[in-house]
Structures are given as C-alpha cells and as structure tokens.
Design brief:
3% strand; membrane; transmembrane helix; DUF445 family protein; two-stranded antiparallel sheet; transmembrane
Length: 435
C-alpha cells in the first residue's frame, strides 16, 4: 500500500464517507418506489385541462408531446402505463393475439353450432311476444282480426324454421367474420377505454418482481455510492455530489428497468447466469394475461357488441336481416299471396323487414349471456395462453414493455432529479468531503 493511499485513508472522515452510500441507497430505493407510482398511477388523468395546450404541444419535440398530461391537453399526470394502454393493445394484437389465426379460425374455436343452439334456446320463448309486438305496430287491424289459432300458427311456423335460420345466420357470420370483426380495433379500443386492465396485467403476475426492483434500487444505490464517496473525499469539490447524484439516479433507474426486462433469454455475464425477471416467468405471465384477455377483452359479449355496434355493425345487421327474411316468408306459407293482396306488397315487405329487424337484436342475445360467455371464455383463455407462452422471449418482452418503452426517459430523468436533490441535501448536511 503506497504512502499516498495510507495518507488518504488516514484523512477520511469515515462517518461522512459511509453516509454517502447510505444516502444513495435511500435515494435509490425512493427513486424506484416513486418510479412505480409514476408508472401505474393515476389510472385516469388528474389535473387541469388548459384550452389550446394540446395544439401548442403539437409544436414541441415528439418526446415532450408524449408526456402524460401534455398529451391530454392539460397540466397534470396520468400513469405512464395506463396512458399507453392503447399502444400496448396494438402490440399485443401484433405479437400474440394475431397468432391465434384469422378471425374465421378464431370464430370456429368458439363452436358456432353451440352458439346457434343457445340462440334457439333463448330466442324461441320470445318469438310470440316479438311477432305480436311487430304486427301490432305494423298492421294492428290485420293482427287483431286474425283468429288466435291463426296467430299461433304463424308463431309455430316461425319457431319451426328457427333452428335452420339460426344455423344459416351463424354460418353466414363465420363466412364473413374476417370482414365483420377486427380484433385489433376491438382490443385497442377496449384497452383505451379501460386502462386499468393494462395495470392489472403487470400487477397480477409481476407485483413480486416490481417490489424486488424497488429493493434492488436501494442495493444499486448503495454500491454506486461507494465510488461517489471515494471521489468526493479525494477531490473535495462542492459540485461533485450533486452531479454524481444525477448519474447515480439515472443509472439506478436504468438498472432497475434492465433487471425487469433484460436479457429476455438466460445468458452468462462474467460467469453469472442472468435472466430478466419478467421473461423468466413468461409461462405464468401468459396465464394471467390470457385470463384478463378472455374475461375482460375478447369476450363473447364484446364480440357481439362489436359485430352489431362496431364500425361494421350496419353490414352485420343487414346480413342478419337478409337471413331472417325467408323465415317470415315460409311462416306465411300458402297464404302469403293472399296476405300480400290484402296488405299490398309494400305493406307486406315493411312487416317482413320489421320482424327481421327486431330479430337481429335477439339473434346475438347469447353473446350477451354472461354465463354462456364465461363458458366460452375458457376456450379463449386456453388459446391466448398457449400462443403467449409460445412467443419468442424477445417478442414477449416487447409486448410487455410496449406501454413503457417510449417514456422510459421520463423515469430516468425523474431518477436524475432525485439523485441531484439527494446530492444537494447531503452537501448541505455534511459539507464537502465532510469538511
């Protein structure tokens, strides 16, 4: 040991020296803890909307435009992950859900014949009221003058045709499902409207890893604080602690993010086997992810709602009405020509269209049946879990990181600011090198 080193060791104020790693450990813990708060909270934007701010933000650099708060045209904050819910939905479809196959293949896995049986089961008891309601509205005198036996005959004939008609409808939906259903739009819109779901994906399977990241912030902070203490006690410059606090804060957050996601596949670094905390639990993550997708996103209820009320809902309604029309003609049977003469062709067609129109709403009733939807959710969950588990680790990491990636610089900047503050606080309490 040289005389210079011995002299340095003799001059060190060890109390102050070790206070620096303790400070950086506490700051590192706080950085990662508050970083998680920034990631997840609040789920909805909290702040004040400022008229014209959204337009003004458009001239700022792209990264500034993406800051939660500014992107909503206000001064405030929304958690980074819920603010990016739609983007994560888009990546999720591209990386995993699209690998379930085409919408037609996906629809076949939902057992359309079983759906058809359920439609008949639910729809059949409602037929008398449906036909009675339409006929009273469209041609009350004809329906009033028709003997009860005649009314029952019309209902019976429609009911008799119902299984075949419904089977035709479910087949038609399957044949045109690629044009009627867009899973990407469906998932993106659902995530955008329900950002808490994206938070759940992380929380439900990754809370242990996220907590571990907070504690690693303290460990990294302590280890990084040792060379900071050496530099501070060697050069005795007042600006060193704040400046190096910026570095420690930035690096602590960067190491925390790296710990969570990298490397996606196990590898050895300096002889030590390392593997990202999230990708090492891809199988468990896939089960959690699939459960949320099946129970809250790609549900039969949401599929039915998208088919009827989504951007292509008009086409679905028209297709179903066309399929229901022949059932009404067949129910009229041999008296159809006489009915047309009595009513006039235009009036007959209006009744026919009215019954078909009302029938459309009932045709997709089982999609809104929660018990039936839960039964089908098991199939969706199995499909999504298997595909997510089969994803290459890099794709899985990209899917999970998509909601954060563009905004990680904010976490690092937040760490740098806190590191700077910690350096200033230590300098204020202990002075330069403890002097």
């Amino acid at each position: 040991m040289t005389d210079a080193v011995v002299g340095w060791l003799g001059e060190v104020n060890w109390w102050v020296f070790w206070s620096i790693p303790v400070f950086t450990a506490v700051v590192g813990w706080l950085i990662n803890w508050t970083g998680l708060v920034m990631l997840f909270s609040p789920v909805r934007f909290h702040g004040v909307r400022v008229p014209g701010l959204r337009e003004l933000t458009g001239v700022l650099p792209r990264q500034a435009q993406e800051v939660p708060g500014l992107m909503q045209g206000g001064i405030g904050w929304q958690g980074i992950i819920p603010a990016r819910a739609a983007k994560m939905g888009s990546i999720a479809v591209d990386k995993a859900i699209s690998k379930l196959g085409t919408p037609a293949e996906f629809y076949q896995n939902l057992e359309p014949d079983r759906i058809a049986e359920h439609i008949v089961e639910l729809f059949s008891p409602e037929l008398p009221d449906l036909i009675d309601e339409v006929m009273r509205s469209e041609h009350p005198s004809l329906w009033r003058d028709l003997p009860p036996a005649g009314r029952r005959a019309v209902v019976a004939r429609v009911r008799e045709q119902l299984p075949g008609v419904v089977h035709t409808i479910t087949t038609e939906i399957g044949n045109h499902i690629d044009q009627l259903l867009d899973p990407k739009i469906m998932v993106i819109e659902h995530f955008r409207e329900n950002p808490a779901l994206v938070v759940r994906i992380f929380r439900d399977f990754g809370q242990r890893e996220l907590n571990l990241m907070v504690w690693f912030g303290g460990i990294f902070g302590f280890l990084l604080g040792i060379p900071v203490a050496v530099v501070d006690h060697t050069f005795h410059q007042w600006w060193l602690l704040p400046v190096m606090g910026v570095v420690v804060g930035w690096v602590t957050n960067a190491l925390g993010m790296w710990l969570i996601f990298e490397p996606p596949e196990p590898r050895r670094i300096l002889g030590v086997r390392v593997h990202g905390l999230f990708p090492r639990r891809q199988r468990e993550a896939a089960e959690v992810y699939a459960g949320i997708i099946a129970d809250d996103v790609i549900t039969l209820e949401n599929i039915g709602d998208f088919l009827l009320n989504g951007p292509r809902g008009d086409r679905t309604r028209q297709m179903l009405a066309v399929a229901l029309g022949p059932a009404i003609d067949q129910a009229a049977g041999v008296v159809r020509p006489a009915v047309k003469v009595a009513l006039g062709r235009g009036r007959y067609e209006s009744i026919r269209r009215a019954i078909a129109r009302e029938g459309v709403e009932h045709t997709l009733t089982p999609f809104r049946d929660q018990d039936f939807s839960r039964e089908q959710a098991a199939k969706i969950r199995t499909l999504v879990a298997r595909r997510t588990q089969e994803l290459p680790p890099r794709d899985f990491v990209e899917m999970m990181r998509a909601a954060i990636k563009e905004d990680e610089w904010m976490l690092y900047a937040h760490g740098a600011i806190m590191g700077f503050g910690g350096g200033v606080l230590h300098l204020w309490i202990f002075g330069v090198g403890g002097g």
